[in-house]
Amino acid sequence: NQIHDFSADGEWIEAGAGTTWENVERYLEKKGFSLRVYPTSMPAATLGGWIASSGSGLGAGGSGVGSVMYGPVGKNLAGLEVVTGLGEILNLSEPEDIADFVGADGITGFITKVRLKIRKKPASVRRTLITAPDAEGAQRLVEAIGAMKSVYFAQFEDASMLEIKTSLGLHAPLGVKGFLLFASLEGDAETVRSECDQLKKMTGECGGKTLPETEAQKEWEERLYPMRVKRGGPTVIAGEFMAPSSRLASVLKDVYSEFPGGAAKRAIHGVVIEAPDVMLMPQIFSDERKGLKFLASLAYVKRFNDIGLRHGGQPYGVGHLNAFNAKAVHGQAGYDRLKALKKKYDPGDIINPGKGIEHRTRFGFAAPPFLYNLSMFGLGLFRRLGV
Ligand SMILES: Cc1cc2nc3c(=O)[nH]c(=O)nc-3n(C[C@H](O)[C@H](O)[C@H](O)COP(=O)(O)OP(=O)(O)OC[C@H]3O[C@@H](n4cnc5c(N)ncnc54)[C@H](O)[C@@H]3O)c2cc1C
Q1: How far is the CA of 48 from the centre of ligand 1 (A)?
Q2: End of a domain among 78, 103, 120?
Q3: Measuring from each residue's beta carbon to the nearest atom of ligand 1, which residues come in under 6 Å?
Q4: Nearest residue CA, atom 27 of ligand 1?
Q5: What does the sequence similarity comment in the record state about its family (predicted)?
Q6: Neighbours of 341 (CB within 10 A)
């Protein structure tokens, strides 16, 4: 879990896979460099853990801070050292070889060392916080943000999320109707200035407002703590799916119509990732101590994923419990390749067995996908019956 090597000229850094993203960023800061992408869980997430997480699929992996500019983590790797299930140590530097171990949920090999592409600290940085009164305005602004050259990170939240934060004593601008959008614009001073002005103008045209820069700076400082709202639960049922930003307004409407009515707390958080997509995280605050009621609300996760799929998107992440989504996340070709890679690199099935391409139960057999659909359907029925 240490930094091994760094090249300012080559713009890369090499570190042990157990190093946290935050440690690498701290090291780079002192050298006048910065990470290109990192997860918002950077204080605790390791290089190997995030690179292995499936995110948007095999070869791509997760998206996070920086992904609107640099794409998913898979596009930001210059090398990997991996130990396969056969005990071989592979030193990989070709993108097509590296891809076999990115977004694979760790089932093809154990990553031991990582060479990351890095960036020089930008000459100019401006953070902007704007509002949009409705979903159509939010879509227009998100599409513009996704197309801008200098946007490094951008996210948005609906007014319910801000109300929940305020009620929990967390930072949130007051009195926002509709949506709050944050963008960090980074690069050469001229591009940053002109794109910031463009965004401000467009915000006015959408009927929104530009909030003070001090508020925008606070939003940036809070970017690593998206789960603090969980205190409002104590459990949060969170969907996580990708959808094209050109469908954002319709997707938001579908999510709202799926949300429970009454006093249930629910809200939406979104991140702008590599164009043309956004990542949506609808959240329903629940209480896992309430047995059947809580179980019934799990059906929402599938319903949210289905909304993403209907609009040309896909679920985000596979792991263990969501292995039923593996084909939707990796695509049929990616899924077939992952199965073939598993046979090639880990024929004895010793690395992360029963994950990623199947949901193996503790009884040793893989649960068939129809069982998942059936149980989600059953839980959905309970929900509709008001359990
Ligand atoms: C607050 C919060 C914010 C988050 N933000 C983001 C985000 O912005 N973007 C995003 O995509 N995800 C995000 N996540 C989820 C994200 O996947 C994890 O936070 C992060 O990737 C986990 O890293 P970890 O080191 O804890 O790995 P773990 O959770 O320990 O492992 C993740 C997977 O990788 C495998 N693995 C771990 N290490 C290795 C290795 N060295 N070699 C091979 N396989 C390995 C594990 O077996 C497991 O399958 C967030 C989660 C939280 C709680």
Answers
A1: 8
A2: 120
A3: 17, 39-41, 45-46, 48-50, 52-53, 55, 62-64, 105-106, 110-111, 226-227, 352
A4: 49
A5: Belongs to the FAD-binding oxidoreductase/transferase type 4 family.
A6: 20
The boundaries of the domain holding residue 191 are: 124-298
pLDDT classification of 374: cutoffs 50, 70, 90: confident
Over the stretch 41-79, which tens digit does the pLDDT of each residue have?
A: 999 999 999 999 999 999 999 999 999 999 999 999 999
For ligand 1, atom 21: residue with the closest CA: 50
Q: Residue 369: pLDDT above 80? A: no
Alpha carbon of residue 276 to chain centroid: 15
> Are 182 and 155 within 8 A, CB to CB?
yes
Least Cα distance to 228 among 168, 288, 156 occurs for: 168
Determine contact, residues 131/209, Cβ cutoff 8 Å. yes
Q: Are residues 130 and 254 in the same domain?
A: yes
Q: How far is the CA of 376 from the centre of ligand 1 (A)?
A: 25
Q: What digits encode the pLDDT tens for the residues 312-328?
A: 999 999 977 778 899 99
Same-domain check for residues 162 and 112: no
If one counts the domains in the chain, the total is 2
User: Residue 278 belongs to a domain with what CATH number?
Assistant: 3.40.462.40
| C-alpha span between 279 and 64 (Å, rounded) | 10
ipTM reported for the complex surpasses 0.95: yes
Pair 277, 252 in one domain: yes
- Whether 148 and 278 map to the same domain: the answer is yes
Calpha distance 387→383 (Å, rounded): 6
**Neighbour tally for 7: CB within 10 Å:** 12
Question: 198 to each of 119, 210, 218, how far by Cα in Å?
Answer: 25, 12, 22
Ligand 1 pocket: which of 24, 51, 53 to mutate (most atoms <8 Å of CB)?
A: 53
**Where among 120, 137, 170 does a domain terminate?**
120
The pLDDT mean for the chain works out to 93
